[in-house]
Amino acid sequence: MGPSRGRRYFLLLVLLAGFGVILFRLVTLQVLQAAELTARADRQHQKTVTLEGARGAVTDRHGKVLAMNVEVPSIFGVPTSLDSPANAARSLSPLLHIRREEIEKKLRQDKHFVWLARKVEPEQGHRLEQLAIDGIGMVMEGRRFYPKGPLLSHVLGFVGMDGVGLEGLERRYETQLHGEKRLTILQRDALGRTVFPKGLREQVPAAGQALVLTIDEVIQYIAEKELEEAVDHAHAKSGTIIVMEPQTGAILAMAVSPRFDPNAVASLTADRWRNRALTDTYEPGSTMKVVVAAAALEEKVMMPGSMLFGENGRMIVANTTIHDHEKLGWMTFAQMIQKSSNIGAAKTGILLGEQRLYRYLQAFGFGQRTDVDLPGEVVGLLKAPREWGRRSLASISMGQEVGVTPLQMVSAVSAIANDGVLMKPYVVSEVRDHKGQSLKDILPHVKRRVISPGTARTLTTIMEGVVTNGTGLKAAIPGFRVAGKTGTAQKVDPRTGTYSSAMSIGSFAGFVPADAPRLAMIIVIDEPLGEAWGGVVAAPVFRRVGEQVLTYLGVPRDDQVKIAMVSK
Amino acid sequence: MKAVAVIAALCLVFVFVWERVDVVRLGYSIERLKTQKTLLERERDQLQVKVSALTAPERIAKVATDKLGLLPPQQGQLFIVHPQPDPPLVATTPAEQLRIARSMPIGGASK
């Protein structure tokens, strides 16, 4: 028993020692090094990635896509894993259209990660996969596409490389458009493959919201095409067209020339992409006379038949001379507007007085933002009467000493077309979620009544006379009644600080059909060469755009309405 | 009795292991399908951009004028007609059915 007992104790001791070692190791692993080892295991089993929902799309009023995100490859290099940066650069150069030296320089950096080209074409990604270069890889990133190219670029704006809106609607609606960003932990197996993690369904970040615009891409195209032609033909510096629905304030088109392609803005400057329709002010010249006329008619200072003397084209005001473009004698108030008499407008303004004129200018929205849902809008220039000089009343009445944006002016003209009610202009009509469900409908917003319906109708008749008998003959659209007003304003020469004889702005603002307005429109041509009269450079553009848009909208001509009535 | 208990225990263990393996297998399968879905969505988006670019009014106008030689309608060439909605082509009586059948072209419907 003795030796056998001794062996048993020995065996027991050995076993205890063995278990003791195991226990010690277990305590070391599970207790003492637990935190460190858990972290190391997590690093191997889990992959933390930033998932970002796609940026929301932008469509026109009929659902035509104007901007949307598509995932495209971005190419990167891992210099520490590369055998030969020179060989890699030689293979990549023709694929990425980047100089070989430039790529090689990046790949020779002492870094673990370098971007070689971001957001390239999908085809380039496919070709890179075929090359299969060790140390060169790609990840997918969302890239903003504007499939219509330059169409509506000044309104849409664009996003930066990191997908954040920098201009236009992209900037104004950044909060709504951008997709949700979320850190997500994915499980990996021993081969590094992603294993479907528990609860991923809840972790998918939401896509950004989509915008539906009031813009109609066909009307926008017509406006841009005609504006480009007009600016080219007049050798002008720039131009703007805004087409608005007078009853709602919905903007159907907003065109600025020169255009730009938001898909390639890297080489452009702000001068090219700023939306001049609301960032640039100009002295409106004679288009302002409709506002003065509205005030005079509403205040019963003038009637359409009231007589005014044109002073044969010259009148002294505050030791300065006001000229008319032709020698006018006695004329009615309506003729004064139709012939665009500066002297007649100045006399009307003087009869109205500073306070009343100022009150109406403010009521029509001058000197304040229209609050359109686009960034960068300026207030324009409208001084308070206490800052006016001795000539100001006369000058402002003929559209000088006051700075307006094209958007302010078209809103004011829309108010006349809308029976005297000023609407807030807007571009976005609906916000939808990524599934297309409506989240918010943006409804027309009435700002205020500025003149009575009777005054608006009287003024409309006078403005029709501008197109049938006055300075706006070239705006006439066969088969439709057009109401409008021409404007020609000299620009201030920045070198001399005085009005330039060479630089001017020609414009036309009006609406059609005059009896049941469907479109209010302004055309502004900046610094045309040669004849700069609004009636020459801008009025024909109104006719061409109006004619095409009315046809597109299916608005029957007056003679067609008559045929339809007879056949009934 | 003991044998039955052992077999039952083994079955339970087997079912547990099989279930764990199947979860992992399904996980891979889901991941594959998700990748496929992502690729298809990406392709759909790319095609949508292409469609949008191809239907741009500027391009259509260019093709219409340059390639097809079309011109915008001139004054007097365009009439806007607001037609009355067509009566339904559902025949209610045998006579009506006969009338519709007679008006149909051979081998096809009239509408």
Describe, in short, the structure shown:
Chain A is α+β, with helices and mostly antiparallel strands and 568 residues long.
| Structural Rg of chain B | 33 Å
CATH homologous group name of the largest domain in chain A: DD-peptidase/beta-lactamase superfamily
SS-based class of chain A:
alpha+beta
Total of DSSP H or I helical runs spanning 4+ residues of chain A: 22
- Spatial separation of the terminal alpha carbons of chain A: 131 Å
Low-confidence stretches of chain A: 198-202
In N-to-C order, the SSE pattern of chain B is: HHH
Looking at the structure, the CATH topology of the largest domain in chain A is: Beta-lactamase
Shape of chain B: elongated
Q: Oligomeric state of the chains?
A: heterodimer
Features:
heterodimer; A: 568 residues; alpha+beta; Penicillin-binding protein 2a (Domain 2); Beta-lactamase; 2 domains; seven-stranded mixed sheet; five-stranded antiparallel sheet; 22 helices; 21 strands; B: 111 residues; mainly alpha; 0% strand
Could you explain how this protein is built, in words?
The complex is a heterodimer of chains A (568) and B (111). In chain A, 38% of the residues lie in helices and 22% in strands. Chain A has 568 residues and is an alpha+beta fold. Chain A folds into two domains: 49-213, Penicillin-binding protein 2a (Domain 2), CATH 3.90.1310; 217-567, 3-Layer(aba) Sandwich (Beta-lactamase). In chain A, strands 2, 3, 4, 5, 8, 16 and 17 form a seven-stranded mixed beta sheet that branches. A five-stranded antiparallel beta sheet of chain A has the order 10-9-21-20-19, with helices on both faces. In chain A, a hairpin with a 6-residue loop joins strand 9 (238-244) and strand 10 (251-257). Chain A is elongated, with a radius of gyration of 35 Å. The N and C termini of chain A lie far apart (131 Å). Chain B has 111 residues and is mainly α. Chain B has a domain at 1-71. Chain B contains three helices and no strands. The longest helix of chain B has 53 residues, at 2-54. Chains A and B meet through strand 3, strand 7 and helix 10 of A and helix 1 and helix 2 of B.
